[in-house]
Design a protein that fits this description.
Layout: H1 4-17, H2 27-34, H3 38-50, E1 54-57, E2 63-66, H4 75-82, H5 110-127, H6 131-135
Antiparallel strand pairs: 1-2
Helix pairs in contact: 1-2, 1-3, 2-3, 4-5
């Protein structure tokens, strides 16, 4: 299942993408509109800021804003930052590969074959959608 961190991160990004003129939005406003705890949202937005998706402005009129065009924000990249590997098994992962301790032969492992197919299809969906695709 998708973690709340990833779900809320996607909701916050889509909220920011819908802002006119990409104006900064305070955390409290995002939290209220998207029904997210402010404390939890702070940690998510900080992670997205450190990953290069968001900028932050302090002071009056401050808040978070997108620093990339929504069409240039791949949902696969957002997913990996917030959730981690796309693959459900470490042996089926492209970016986080690890051999399974209980597997004698990866080439004949039915679980790996199935989870590789799941990964490939999930990746196809995530890579073919940008933030603009899901926000508007």
């Amino acid at each position: 299942m998708l973690s709340k961190k990833t779900k809320y991160g996607i909701k916050a990004l889509t909220f920011l993408a819908r802002q006119e003129n990409n104006n900064p939005v305070q955390i409290a406003e995002i939290a209220k509109n998207e029904h997210i705890s402010i404390k939890f949202l702070e940690s998510i937005l900080l992670l997205l800021r450190n990953s290069g998706f968001l900028g932050a402005k302090k002071g009056k009129g401050g808040g978070y804003y997108l620093i990339k065009d929504p069409k240039d924000i791949s949902m696969a990249k957002v997913y990996r930052i917030l959730e981690g590997p796309i693959a459900l098994l470490p042996c089926a992962s492209h970016n986080f590969y690890e051999k399974c301790d209980d597997c004698d032969d990866e080439t004949t492992c039915a679980a790996r074959r199935l989870m590789t197919e799941v990964r490939d299809n999930t990746l196809k969906v995530l890579e073919s959608n940008s933030l603009a695709d899901i926000a508007f």
